[in-house]
Amino acid sequence: MGALFAHIAGSPVALMGVHELSAATCAVIFGASAACCVGAAQANARLLKRHPPRVLPAVAATLLGAASLVLAFTAFTGALLAERWRRRAIPPRSI
Predict the structure, then answer these.
(1) Is the pLDDT score of 9 beyond 70?
(2) pLDDT band, residue 3 (cuts 50/70/90)
(3) E strands of 15-68, at which residues?
């Protein structure tokens, strides 16, 4: 429950303050996030009717681990690519 309140309280600060999005864009993203939460709850109810409760956390942990590895790989290679592009785009300063 605390995570939900943290999400509700922190989303506008992060989206509007840090990422400098407009209020309308923040509202669309927040609404999409809420719709995803409702959809996930509906999917969870349907999955629990078909599969035993022990299976779902194991599958979820496996998918989360795979997604984390993909995200880490993307972040690592993206950072390297950004550094290469920065070196090409900004000529060295002459003193």
Answers:
(1) yes
(2) confident
(3) none
